[in-house]
UniProtKB/TrEMBL annotation, chains A, B:
Residues 186-313 form the Amidohydrolase-related domain. This is Amidohydrolase-related domain-containing protein. The keyword Lyase applies. It comes from the Eukaryota. Belongs to the metallo-dependent hydrolases superfamily. One of its GO terms (molecular function) is carboxy-lyase activity. GO terms for biological process: secondary metabolic process. Keywords: Decarboxylase, Lyase. GO terms for cellular component: cytosol. The keyword Ribosomal protein does not apply.
Length: 389, 389
């Protein structure tokens, strides 16, 4: 493609007039304590050992119920901080906001989920607080974190609120990552808003795999379509339930650029307008709420990013109390991410194609000035998490 | 919103330098014979009578298994051609390409589906051939049609090929509408390509309704999200199966602007690139195939249309044999539609908001010249169906 003719050297941040940080807000970890939990299990999610084709013992991760095949190889890049730092260095990432990978604590009974959430949050605080200083950004560490909540079936509200309080005491953790199964809990939203925690909403379950037909396409359909569908459904349900009306100061960050929500948002608005019972519950046109959200820039294409920026920019024009299109606001609510350690290179190469694709996408949005790119690459993240540099 | 300050008068086609037709390629009918079939049924899809709140007898349509509530009101606008013509006149639509509404013949046993497909195709030919001349477009009728195929479970290939042959003999039917359950049938694709029929791919089933949680949102989630998800999965499976590689001359028209496919297409390409078994089956990057498809312009928003146009425009740049981004090509593969008689006005108004939204969206794509708008509003449809005006 034509954009390929510009090398990553040309596109690199070094062309920015001032040195701006590159901050990765979508990067995962299975903390050692969590990996141990998975090793002790006999059904997915689990980590198991087998002998590979060369006779070597290897560990593999079965992440989904009914996952086809033998799972994926899993190793130190999932849990060792040095691997994270090496990856960051390889891609000139200055700061990472690390989050636990799916499926978090979803499979645990309430009491165990509560205990493990607190332990893992403490582990992550240590993982972050003992990380190196960010090179060139005095006062900042190279790693911060998203904590966990025990949002499992049967959990008590007070148990979740307990852990929110705990997270608030951990100085390097100023957000939480949640799946889509715990989103219906209203008092939790209230507490999260009050605690001013950034909420990273991330998929795990996709949609019913029967929709995907026979299983000859590996993980492509559940990952490429199921994941973003799940995120889209979750945030749409939050909008329809009025959560964004009642908690307007929630700071929700959507994985994978909001899935399909941007492209389906005008259709959503139209369907709502044709259903008076739903319509009268909401304070605004559905498109308005997209301007209140944050989107990672993990969409792998410049046209996708530009479009997400456009739907954020138009959001205020869909306020029922009046507002204007603002083309500049889009790039203030989108944030670079890598999805590390998933989507690794197929061959032992220095750079990860998935990361390069996302960086190139940011550099190739034609309507963005250098200042907009600097926002998306890192400054937005520092502002969102109230870090100064 | 600011666009609302421009009236539809200002935006109307009369500002075009030459009179270009407005052609609706997404407009449905339940032919009288089909309505009778639904009336004879005791489970969905069915039409039943009940006494409404005012003591009047009314007919209602239950279209989905397990549909919440009592279905939707159904009446002459679903089957009477005069109602279609009245609607067209109200919105200045010159020509309609009418298709049967979902769920087509999906619920029928093979023999009945085969017979009814042929009968309905003949009915539709008569519906079209006896329609008025298109006003101002000599030689053209006001209505053409998409035929049906008996793509039901257990049908023989020869039975489907039979009906393709029949459709080919009907002069006012030069396309077919299909759901997503019959898309795996390879000899059928070969026959359709050979017959040069336009294939309108339309959803009905959505995704598993359990994904949508409790049922307090009416039809909003299945319609706004489930429908486009289903279309996205169907066309993605066709791409992954290599159908678009083996039948490069297929003319596939996607309902609802391709659902979520455009926004997920770079993610799809990335997921494929990370799965060598799937990747090596395909001749091109996934994004290439979007340039081989046609998209209706039923997305209700200008930013959505512009984005779909962009992903069509970039497609050639993702050919593995080399190609360039072409910003002008997008508007040659997008086609105005209304989804009539669905999404009717809530109040007895002259104009349908759903139609106005789609027209205004076309008029508000900032990067489109008047010639591009004329293409999307009607000229593309005439070219696609080889009609001269």
């Amino acid at each position: 493609m034509n954009l390929g003719k510009r090398t990553m050297e040309e596109l690199s941040r070094r062309t920015l007039s001032t040195r701006a940080p590159i901050v990765d807000i979508h990067t995962h970890v299975y903390l050692p304590r969590y990996a141990e939990e998975l090793r002790a299990r006999s059904s997915a999610p689990r980590i198991y050992r087998r002998t590979d084709a060369d006779g070597q013992l290897e560990e593999r991760l079965l992440i989904l119920d009914g996952e086809p095949g033998v799972g994926r190889p899993v190793g130190p890049q999932y849990w060792e901080r040095d691997q994270k730092l090496l990856f960051m260095k390889r891609h000139d990432i200055d700061i990472s906001f690390v989050s636990s990978a799916n499926p978090w604590l979803d499979f645990l009974p309430p009491e165990r989920a509560h205990t493990l959430a607190q332990e893992l949050n403490n582990d992550l605080e240590e993982y972050c607080s003992t990380s190196p200083q960010a090179n060139g950004f005095p006062g900042l560490r190279s790693i911060y974190g998203f904590g966990l909540l025990p949002l499992v079936s049967g959990i008590s509200v007070s148990s979740v609120l307990d852990v929110i309080k705990q997270v608030n005491t951990l100085p390097h953790i100023s957000g939480i990552i949640i799946g889509t199964r715990g989103v219906g809990n209203e008092p939790v939203w209230e507490a999260i808003q009050q605690a001013n925690l950034v909420v990273f909403i991330h998929p795990h379950y996709g949609v019913d795999s029967k929709s995907f037909g026979n299983k000859t396409n590996g993980h492509v359909l559940p990952l490429a379509l199921g994941f973003p569908f799940e995120t889209t459904i979750a945030i749409t349900r939050l909008i329809l339930a009025g959560v964004l009306d009642r908690y307007p100061n929630l700071r929700l960050l959507l994985a994978h650029s909001g899935g399909a929500l941007p492209q389906l948002s005008s259709r959503l608005a139209s369907c709502i307008a044709h259903d008076p019972i739903v319509a009268k519950r909401l304070k605004h046109d559905a498109r308005y709420y997209l301007g209140k959200l944050y989107f990672d820039a993990v969409a792998y294409g410049a046209e996708e990013l530009r479009f997400v920026s456009d739907v954020i920019g138009r959001a205020e024009a869909y306020s029922f109390t009046g507002g204007e299109y603002n083309a500049d606001v889009g790039s203030t609510r989108m944030l670079f991410g890598t999805d590390h350690p998933f989507f690794p290179p197929l061959e032992a190469s220095q750079k990860w194609q998935s990361v390069e694709d996302n960086l190139k996408a940011i550099w190739s949005v034609r309507t963005w000035e250098d200042s907009a790119r600097a926002n998306v690459l890192g400054l937005n993240a520092l502002r969102l998490f109230d870090l100064e540099c």
